[in-house]
Structure formats: structure tokens, C-alpha cells
Amino acid sequence: MNTHQNKVVEFEDLGIKDYQSSWDYQEKLMKEIIDTKIKNRDLPAEEHLKTSNHFLLVEHPHVYTLGKSGHEENMLAGIDKLKEIEATFVKVNRGGDITYHGFGQIVGYPILDLENFFTDIHKYMRNLEEVIIRTIAEYGLQGERSPGETGVWLDVGKPYARKICAMGVKASRWVTLHGFAMNVNTDMRYFEYIIPCGIKDKQVTSIKRELERDLTAGEMEDIKTKIQKHFADVFEADLVSK
């Protein structure tokens, strides 16, 4: 067992923050972790410095992001339309295709050194899905995985299958970036301007749409608390507020 493993995860709720500055902050945290790992190369094992882990929750103003393997034609709105709906468009370095972030959507960014947990990206993605599956179960929703497609879905295998949480990540030297976006009170009209994740025959949904009611600000905070609890359980981590 690696005695230098650190399963403490520093948690921050960033509130409402624009996409680019949130991405810059993630990159800064990732660089700090990678710099520590590079330093450790020149140190004897017993003197290795522990690397940090972070978990950010945030809401973004309206933005469409396109992953590095994505197809720009899945963005259906032109520049004029984006201005009209007060949305921006950003190309990012995560996996996956195009997705939407906006108000009423809870976005989670774990910046973890997976060498503190396990070195398996597939397991990491399944763990993130599990966090969301457990969270929405508390609202009577049965989240599922869809074979060959990341994220969390409802009614997989049925004509009305729909995605409630999108995921896209990047990892460098086993340090993760980007994460998940769960639709809670999201204005679903914004998804009409893209082919979400490049998947044409599947719908998107939200907790609001499934429960047929708006969630209060207090309930939004409750969901964040539940996400933290399930994240700590699934990753066997010790979450501490920064």
C-alpha cells in the first residue's frame, strides 16, 4: 500500500461563475498537483510529498462547450442566435462532444490525483456516474448507465430514454479535469440549439421536468450536499470544505 496516498478532498462551492474562469481555476489546481508529482521524481520514495485533491461545484451562465473529439456541426446556433439567447461557445480539452451549461444546472469538477485512489479512468467514470445515480435516487428517480454512452440516463433501452447528467473528462499524469453536469432546474430550451453529446435520437431531461415542479433554492443546496455525501462514499474520500 502506498503510504503517501492522500484521500482528503478539498471541497469548494464556487456559486455562479463563468465557464472560462472556472476552467482556468481547474487548470491552476491541476498544474499544482502535477508540479508536486514532478518534484517527487527526484525524491526518495519515503520523502515523497502528498498530492492534493479538489472537488468543485458550480453553476455557469449560459455556455456551450465542445470537446476535442466533438463535431462543430452539432452546434446548431450561429453567432447571432448565441447573442440573442445570451450564450457563449467555448472549445475545451475534455473528451466528449458538445454540451450545454447554464443556470439551474449543477456542474461538478473533481481535480483528483487518481494515484491517491486507483489508476483506472474507466472506473473513475463509472464512479462519477454512481455518485449521480445515488443522488437522484433520493428524489425517486432511477438513474442508469447506457452501454457505450457516458453519463446518467433514465429509461435506458426504451424509445423515451433521456439523459439527466452529461459527463466529459480529461486526465494528465493521472490527474483529472472537467467532470459532470446534472440538470436540476435547467431551462431545457437551450438544448434545442445543439445535438447534445452528438446523439441525435436521445432526449435530455432534468429533475425539474421529471418531478414536474421547480426546485427551491434550498432544495438546490440540499442536492449539492447529497452530491458531496455520495462522492465521499463512492470514492472513499474525506471531503473537507476549503
From TrEMBL:
Substrate binds at R94, G95, G96, D97, I98, T99, Y100, H101, A166, M167, G168, G179, F180, A181. GO terms for cellular component: cytoplasm. It is an enzyme of class 2 (transferase). Pathway: Protein modification; protein lipoylation via endogenous pathway; protein N(6)-(lipoyl)lysine from octanoyl-[acyl-carrier-protein]: step 1/2. Signal peptide: none annotated. It is found in: Cytoplasm. One of its GO terms (molecular function) is lipoyl(octanoyl) transferase activity. PROSITE patterns: BPL_LPL_CATALYTIC (PS51733), LIPB (PS01313). The active site is at C197 (acyl-thioester intermediate). InterPro entries: aa-tRNA-synth_II/BPL/LPL (IPR045864), BPL_LPL_catalytic (IPR004143), Octanoyltransferase (IPR000544), Octanoyltransferase_CS (IPR020605). The keyword RNA-binding does not apply. GO terms for biological process: protein lipoylation. Residues 49-239 form the BPL/LPL catalytic domain. Its EC number is 2.3.1.181. Keywords: Acyltransferase, Cytoplasm, Transferase. SUPFAM superfamilies: Class II aaRS and biotin synthetases. The record marks K163 as: Lowers pKa of active site Cys. Transmembrane segments: none annotated. It catalyses: octanoyl-[ACP] + L-lysyl-[protein] = N(6)-octanoyl-L-lysyl-[protein] + holo-[ACP] + H(+). In the reaction, the free carboxyl group of octanoic acid is attached via an amide linkage to the epsilon-amino group of a specific lysine residue of lipoyl domains of lipoate-dependent enzymes. Catalyzes the transfer of endogenously produced octanoic acid from octanoyl-acyl-carrier-protein onto the lipoyl domains of lipoate-dependent enzymes. Lipoyl-ACP can also act as a substrate although octanoyl-ACP is likely to be the physiological substrate. Belongs to the LipB family. This is Octanoyltransferase. It comes from Chryseobacterium aquaticum.
